[in-house]
Amino acid sequence: MKRFVIALLALAIAMPTMAYVPPKRKHPEVAYNKFKMYHTMLPQVGRLDVSNPDNANRTRWSIGCETLDRDYATFANYKHLLGPLGVGWARLQSGWAKCEQKKGKYDFAWLDEHVDGVIEQGMKPWLSLSYGNPIYSKDGVTLNSSIWTDEETMKAWCNYVRAIVRHYGDKVMMYEVWNEPDGKAANTPEVVANLLIRTAEVIRKENPKAEILAFGLCKNEMCDYIAKVLDIMKKQNKLHLVDRVSYHVYFENPDNATERIKALRATVKSYDERIDIFQGESGCPAILEFGHALKYKEWSEFKQVKWDLRRMANDFVNNVPSSIFTFVDLQYPNMIQSFGMVRMNLLHEPMYKRPAYYGVQHFASLLHDGIVPAEVKAEALCNREVACHGLATKDGKLIGAMLWYSDLTPTDQLDKDNVSLTLHGFDVDNLVYVEPITGYVHDLRPVITRGGKEGGKVRFSGLPMWDSPILIIQKSALKVKK
How far apart are alpha carbons 270 and 146 in whole angstroms? Predict the structure, then answer.
């Protein structure tokens, strides 16, 4: 018996160093298969080809790989799924408490695995420098998102930041200073400004070319808070330390966040036209949650993917780089959080890809860096509010449009409505219909009315529409497979 126990202990110690072997059993992707059953009745001409993605051409998109500093997920178990998603960046949290467990001694081996792993997947890592370290807390309690005010801890923090920026050099070229400080009453604008200035000065000195994101704001009413912090920085001539202001918005209807985002950009640019904004974290649960953002709402895997794509669509239209929260389900101490594009089990193993994985994969391939928003107006004969935005190449050539119902929170509806619709200022030929969740590409000729294309107008009779983005786009702009 003693030998058996010793053998088990030896196995347990060895397990973290073993290469991850995916479970042999494959679980059905039930929700995604239902989406594929309910696709439009337009003739299908193929599917989007998302093989061999050019992640370097997707720099407006990021995916969240958060909480690895607290071991709420296991990076090695899902790393192989990152690259095929086809986004340019991955957000990691630096984990001061995990890197410095003895004062002045830094161990970055665990973080190296994640930073190097992201790079191996053809993506760029960016680091959120946030959360405290219990070894510098007088009561031995983890400092969490509350920011300290004593000089001893601030010096230790700056030493840690200096060490991590030196360690990664040009491997990490974007740093976010803190996560959701406005969520804690103790984090006054004065406290936040001091932390930001001290931290950013260290980053600038060690890596002058690195981009610095500030705040990771989480409150929907964020403009007054940010203005107070920027007032302090302006008085001290420190605005040059910030490149972007990052924020996290979670609205039940993602379209309702747009006006707040525009207001934030206007506030930031009123201080320095050079500074812009960055959507640092936003996503949707796949089930009803009792904690975290968007709780107490009957979410589903159907609603989740629609929500994520509408958030991405709005960020694209507003020229805001965007990070989707999050890649896999996270095992918090009291729950498994269901925001993941990949469903996980209690062993931190991927069970299956949710529809959100495929939706984001297809959307990132469609809205790559070579595509920019353009002006197109839609006139729809329906009782829903229709969002319509043009798609153009960087040289200004109009190639398509993106449309969706924007007035309500996403639903579980799988059937599409047939809508009569006219696009104005839309002189584009060789059009196809793309549904980004399934990636199906369809022939549009059956719904373009006779003589419908005239004087920059295109008329559609019975265009499939619903509460998730669809694209009408030039076929030559796509990579399509049979």
Answer: 28
CA pair distance 144, 128, nearest whole angstrom: 14
Same domain, 302 and 382: no
Q: In the chain, what is the straight-line distance between the N-terminal and C-terminal CA atoms, in Å?
A: 59
Residues of the chain where predicted confidence (pLDDT) is lower than 70: 1-24, 139-143, 450
> Last residue of some domain: 325, 349, 371?
371
Q: If DSSP codes are grouped into helix, strand and coil, which group holds residue 406?
A: coil
Q: What global pTM score does this model have?
A: 0.94
Q: What angle do CA 353, 359, 362 make, to 5 degrees?
A: 115
Is 22 inside any structural domain? no
* Residue 277 CB partners (closer than 8 Å, separation 6+): 244, 245, 246, 247, 261, 264, 265, 268, 320
Distance between CA atoms of 80 and 406, rounded to whole angstroms? 34
Q: Which of 269, 271, 306 is nearest to 286 (CA)?
A: 306
pLDDT the model gives residue 2? 46
Same domain, 364 and 220: yes
Identify whether residues 410 and 444 lie together within a single domain: yes
Q: Are residue 379 and residue 319 in the same domain, yes or no? A: no
Q: Is 285 among the domain residues? A: yes
Residue 217 and residue 164 in one domain: yes
Residue 146 confidence (pLDDT): 86
Residue 157 CA, distance from chain mean position:
27
* Whether residues 152 and 269 fall in one domain: yes
Residues 244-290: tens digit of each pLDDT: 999 999 999 999 999 999 999 999 999 999 999 999 999 999 999 99
Length, in residues, of the chain: 482
In this predicted structure, what is the pLDDT of residue 26?
Answer: 83
pLDDT, one tens digit per residue, over 411-423 is 999 999 999 999 9
Range of the domain at 230: 29-44+51-371
Q: Report which of 417, 402, 421 is spatially closest to residue 459, judged by C-alpha positions.
A: 421
Whole-angstrom CA distances from 431 to 387, 392, 395, 404, 472 are 19, 14, 20, 17, 6
CATH code, domain carrying 257 = 3.20.20.80
Give per-residue pLDDT as tens, 27-70. Answer: 999 999 999 998 788 999 999 999 999 999 999 999 999 999 99
Provide the number of structural domains found in the chain.
2
Tell me how far apart the alpha carbons of residues 216 and 248 are, in angstroms, rounded to a whole number.
6
Tell me if 76 sits within 8 A of 20, measured CB to CB: yes
Where helices occur in 272-335 by DSSP H, the ranges are 301-317
Do both 178 and 61 map to the same domain?
yes
DSSP string covering 9-26, please? HHHHHHGGGSPP---SSP
Residue 191 is assigned to a structural domain of this protein = yes
